[in-house]
Amino acid sequence: MKKRALWIVLLCFGVMLYACKKESEKQDKVNAFSGFKKPENFPDPQYKLANNPVTEAGFLLGRSLFYEPRLSRNNTISCGSCHIQSSAFTQHGHDVSHGIEDRLGTRNSPPIMNLAWNKAFMWGGGIYDLDLQPIAPITAHEEMDESVENVMVKLRQVSKYPGMFKAAFGSEEITTAKFMKALSQFMLMCVSADSKYDKAMRKEAGASFTADEQAGYELFKAKCATCHTEPLFTDGSFRNNGLGPSPIDDQGLYTATLQATDRYKFKVPSLRNVSYTAPYMHDGRLLSLNAVFEHYNSEVQATPNLDPLLQQSSGIKGISLSADERSKLTSFLKTLDDPGFITRKDLAEQ
């Protein structure tokens, strides 16, 4: 009997070990790097992935560089300082970005998500290639206040980077082009496409909207969808939404194009993860969604180049929203939140 009991114990132990091994192998597959994947309900990306294929080594290098404070003049500010994952890679709590020596920027830190589908970058445009985008914050006086050349010098002095560059690009040589491509590979992987909205659209696991969410969705399609086009919830355009000029008179796209017809036009932001990205607008002047609703309801100003959608023949039209409509619209907008995106371990500083 004792022998039989011992064999039963050993057999059970063996089964447990086998099950644990299988579970570990399954988890390894889940955690395995899968590269860039287009979500089923998304259009084709704008970024030319053939020119910079996302590899695991390139992504890991890009992640290290994203959180690298040596990108700033005094080695205190990284990309991740103003783009915090828990806030969908915005700088939550700040109306405008804070750079080295706590210098104040002029615009709110935009979220870093779904950049593969962007044609233009920055609130005021002027950059049309993701591989070139990091130059702006690195060299801006109020942000990192550094030169790209000096960043390369500093990186070459860090023991881990030659090996990481070799793994990613086949050579230990640290160049600006490789540096930019690595950062792009990390940012390209910041894909947010697993919200309740996405699951409902893909009909995953029976996901569906509540009555209020569905009513809010209908309101959204009627009043907001022209500019905040599904499924990215932005049409990528630059528009004047009737905000009064800021104290510094930021004229948006005009500063990049010098075309009078572009004054006060700013990039239409995505509404994805909107619960995590307050405050709102290019200068963070509106602290809540209700403040945004009130702006469109009664505070639109007739500034130059006001978007035609906010005008009518007799003057400003705005977007009328009752208290009930605001409540239902808020219910829908919360379905765009992607908790998995803001907690993904592979995107966090290691």
How does the SSE layout of this entry go?
Elements: H1 2-31, H2 56-66, H3 79-82, H4 135-139, H5 148-156, H6 160-169, H7 176-188, H8 196-201, H9 211-223, E1 238-239, H10 254-257, E2 266-267, H11 289-299, E3 311-312, E4 315-316, H12 323-333, H13 339-343
Protein name: Cytochrome c peroxidase
Pfam family, one: CCP_MauG
GO molecular function, one term: peroxidase activity
Task: Please describe what this structure looks like.
The chain is an all-alpha fold and 350 residues long. Strands 1-2 form a two-stranded antiparallel sheet. A two-stranded antiparallel sheet has the order 3-4. Helix content is 38%, strand content 2%. A hairpin with a 2-residue loop joins strand 3 and strand 4. It contains 13 helices and four strands. The protein has two domains: 49-191, Cytochrome Bc1 Complex, Chain D, domain 2; 196-340, Cytochrome c-like domain (Cytochrome Bc1 Complex, Chain D, domain 2). Residues 19-30 have low confidence and may be disordered. Residues 211-337 form the Cytochrome c domain. This is Cytochrome c peroxidase. It is found in: Periplasm. One of its GO terms (molecular function) is peroxidase activity.
Give a summary of the structure in a few sentences.
This protein has 13 helices and four strands. It has 350 residues and is mainly alpha-helical. The chain has two domains: 49-191, Cytochrome c-like domain (Cytochrome Bc1 Complex, Chain D, domain 2, Orthogonal Bundle); 196-340, Cytochrome c-like domain (Cytochrome Bc1 Complex, Chain D, domain 2, Orthogonal Bundle).
